Amino acid sequence: MPRPGDSLVSGNRDSQRMTDVVLQGLTKKFGAVSAVRNLTCTMTPGVTGFLGPNGAGKTTTLRMLLGLVRPTAGTATVGGRRYADLPQPRRVVGALLDATGFHPGRTARQHLLISAEQSGLPAARVAVALEQVDLTKDADRRVRGYSLGMRQRLGLATALLGDPEVLVLDEPGNGLDPAGLAWLRGLLRDFGADGRTVIVSSHVLAEVQQIADHVVILGEGTLRHDGPLAGLPGLEAEFLRLTGGVA
Amino acid sequence: MRAEFRKLTTARSTWLLLGIAQLIVVAGVSGLMLRRDDPASDAAQRGAIAHVGLVALFGLLIGILTVAGEYRHRTITDTFLARPRRSSVILSKAVISAAAGVVFGLLASVTALVADAVWLAAKGSSIDLANGVLWKTVAGGIGWNVAFAVIGVGVGALITNLSAAVASALAWIALVEGVVGELVGGGARWLPFALGQALVGLPGAADRPPVWQAGLVLTAYAMIFVLAGNAVTGRRDIT
Questions:
Q1: Count of A–B CB contacts within 8 Å?
Q2: Phi-psi region for residue A85, left (φ > 0), alpha (ψ -120 to 50) or beta?
């Protein structure tokens, strides 16, 4: 099924599909601190759990992938292109990084409209995204009065605006209630099953276990594991062993 | 560009600043007219309408807010995700801020002219709209607003901490430019606030540069600030 953006990279990227996320020798130093060290891995359609303890370099890696942080060395590409080189990045990659990136005085609808306008997306996408995250009835309230869960859903709506092929979500379950978590799980599974690439960072291993096809584990900025979830007998025990935590 | 316009008009701070600016203009014009016993003279009229130029302080704040305000609320992440070519973001902000400078300057001009007319009428005189001094002062005041709004974008991009950027800008105008002026002597007339004053033809030191030179140098300041802000923005990590 053709999707928006397919034609952008059709055929001219060797064997790489536009849904493939490739990290190659990705490295980031903040002063003397190495946040990410020589990270190489490929993430393909389906749900990838992007795991690691606090400070393992997950967020820095995702921000490098999205062109927000400049790698010290190496590359991160989506469909063979750096994020900044994608002609319409929002149609290819949707991202949720932190749920605090909202002006408290604006309404959800205003936020999404601004986001759509600056992304070159039609304003009609706003209503669709609001409906997708079930925020339609609160869309004209100022974000100041939103709960953490509602902000998280607004962040997801922003990520979904461009109907992207690749979703990058940093701790998307934060602040969601049990019903919200179940809903999110369904959404991500559907996206993965639909042939899209979903990258979810999370600390909640039980959540990841329910949705992920593939698991990437980081520890101290380096790759500790990259393989199918099915290959990890006990995710928590393996996670702790690989990242040096106490089991 | 449309998105930048919407950001500006959906922030209440924009309207608040626009409102306060009018109060300052009315107060400034009134204070001057109360004091002068020759309110209809060219000097008094120029002094009254020159308050339009002081609104440039608000233009400066608007410019700073368009950039540092986005860092403050972390909406800058969404902005750069939408437009990873950051230069185009800074350019849009400079254009929108310049437009805001025009609006601030125009509205302040109307307010100043109305306040001026009311005071003249109260003193048994009337405003002479055919007097070129009025319109030259209005034009200079609007130019000052535009230049400072664009400079604000550069300041906000260089100092992304909103409070630090606002404090630096206000400190420069209230204090630092004066001190630097002492240090550089005759060069003081080429500093930004002095150039703004030259634009509205405010009386003061006799060696103020002519309006066209002041306008030119102020434009250069605006370009340098935006270029410097743009260079720093391109390299900044958004963490």
A1: 80
A2: alpha
SS3 sequence, chain B? CHHHHHHHHCCHHHHHHHHHHHHHHHHHHHHHHHHCCCCCCHHHHHHHHCHHHHCHHHHHHHHHHHHHHHHHCCCHHHHHHHCCCHHHHHHHHHHHHHHHHHHHHHHHHHHHHHHHHHHHHHCCCCCCCCCHHHHHHHHHHHHHHHHHHHHHHHHHHHCCCHHHHHHHHHHHHHHHHHHHHHHHHHHHHHCHHHHHHHHCCCCCCCCCCCHHHHHHHHHHHHHHHHHHHHHHHHHCCCC
Euclidean distance between the first and the last CA atom of chain A, given in angstroms as a whole number: 45
Q: Is the pLDDT of residue B49 over 60?
A: yes
Place of tokens 């493939």: A20
Q: Given 3.40.1800.10, 3.40.50.2300, 1.20.120.140, 3.40.50.300, which CATH number is that of A19-243?
A: 3.40.50.300
Non-local CB neighbours of A177 within 8 Å, separated by 6+ positions:
A149
Quickly tell me which residue has 């400072």 as its tokens: B148
Question: Could you tell me the pTM of the whole model?
Answer: 0.90
Are A114 and B85 in contact (CB < 8 Å)?
Answer: no
CA distance A28 to A74: 9
Q: What is the Cα–Cα distance from A215 to A46, expressed in whole angstroms?
A: 11
Q: Is A55 on the interface with B (CB under 8 A)?
A: no
Q: Which residues make beta-bridge pairs with A198?
A: A47, A167
Q: Where are the domains of chain B?
A: 2-235
Structure confidence by residue, pLDDT tens digits, A88-145: 999 999 999 976 789 999 999 999 999 999 999 999 999 999 999 999 999 999 999 9
**What ipTM was assigned to the predicted interfaces of this complex?**
0.90
**What is the spatial distance between Cα B95 and Cα B117, in angstroms, rounded to a whole number?**
33
Chain B residues lying within 8 Å of A90, measured CB to CB = 81-82
Residue in A83, A110, A113 closest to B84 by CB: A83
Instruction: Kindly state whether A144 is in contact with chain B, defined as any CB-CB distance less than 8 angstroms.
Output: no
End-to-end CA distance of chain B: 25
Q: What span, in angstroms and rounded, lies between the C-alpha atoms of A133 and A74? A: 35
Q: Which residues on adjacent β-strands are paired with residue A226? A: A216
Dump pLDDT digits (tens) for B128-168: 888 989 999 999 999 999 999 999 999 999 999 999 999 99
| d(CA A127, nearest CA chain B) in Å | 17
Look up residue A156 and give its two tokens.
């997801």
- Binary contact (A100, B11; C-beta < 8 A): no
**Inter-chain contact A103–B80, Cβ cutoff 8 Å?**
no
| A10 C-beta neighbours (distance < 10 Å), count | 11
Q: Mutation target for A interface from B81, B95, B239: give the one with most A CBs within 10 A.
A: B81
